[in-house]
Amino acid sequence: MSQPQLETLLQAADGLIFDCDGTLVDSLPAYADAWRAAFAASGKVMDTAWHADRCGLCETQLMEQFEHSNQVTLDRPRVVATMRQHYLANLSRHLRELTQVSAIAKRFAGVKPMAVASSGSREIVLHSLAALGLVELFDAIVTFDDVGKAKPDPAIHLQAAQQLGLPPERCLVFEDSAQGLEAARRGRLPVVDVTRLAQP
Questions:
Q1: ω before 154 within 30° of 0 (cis)?
Q2: What pLDDT, on the 0 to 100 scale, is given for residue 163?
Q3: What domain of life does the native source organism fall in (predicted)?
Q4: Which of 77, 78, 143, 157 has the most CB atoms around it within 10 Å of its CB?
């Protein structure tokens, strides 16, 4: 997508909704390290490429696929607790701001209503955004914990639009994953694939 095309969409939107991981924040190394540590208790080694292919999945979806791929039954509450603890303990070492998209959020903070809509846990999303000084930019933050459904279900996007007080079709969504893009389409929200943005 060219810069003029993006600008047209930005000016037409009444509100902006951003995914977190892979859109505002490069958290892939942090998640890979944390999930590897959590899955190790099952006696199985998580391949980094396997994890990278599943970016955009919520915790439950990822554990389901790990169980299927490795023919194991996980103690899911324990795995999640271990993963989150490891992620938060190593946050400052792994996390990086994705400035091409965060610059848009900074530009429109206080100008247009803005929300974060993530399939991640509220705890991790809030800590990730806060660690990079981004959390205060947003009027609402909606996560899997708030709606109980993960993308590609549109519930997270629709709830974010509702919290902004806007019709979904008046909100421009920024996503990086197949699940996120599909969720926006199902909810009939206009969406930008940030992996296709032209470099400034």
A1: no
A2: 97
A3: Bacteria
A4: 157
